[in-house]
Input
Amino acid sequence: MHAALDAGVTFFDTADVYGETRSEEYLRGALGSRRRHVVVATKFGMPIQGGPGGASPAYVKEALEASLRRLGTDYVDLYQLHRPDPAVPIADTLGALGELVVAGKVREVGVSNYTAEQIRSAFEVAPSARRPVSVQNEYSVLHRDPEVDVLPSCASPGRRRPPRSARTSRARRGR
Output
């Protein structure tokens, strides 16, 4: 990571669930005093070590506070819902995320593993200040399905799409 930083890498993407939370801790250690010079993205929502997970407003706030502690920072540049939570309306989740933006604990919000319809729904229910600015889905040379509907739904000003490779996503699913 030090070599990456020295070479000018400024975007680091992790999640609370990676390495059973250790990924965020390792990132904190590697960044040290360089934290303010990079963009840190992390995700929440997946169950950690038998915990609840999800996207309820209470859990959103609890998960962020835990990530901030592990990352050793007082804000996250991009905070992403790791996967849709069918038990919680996206408006409720985006409302909680919006409160974290207003509080200065999160700069931008995003979603991951969303379908085109879920992306459109999120944009319909969220005020412009609380809309996701990124969609992170599996997309690679081997997995081109997002070109059919997800990418066109993201083709709008203010929406970005950090790619997630097929190799790493399969590894996370235990394949």
The chain has one domain: 2-172.
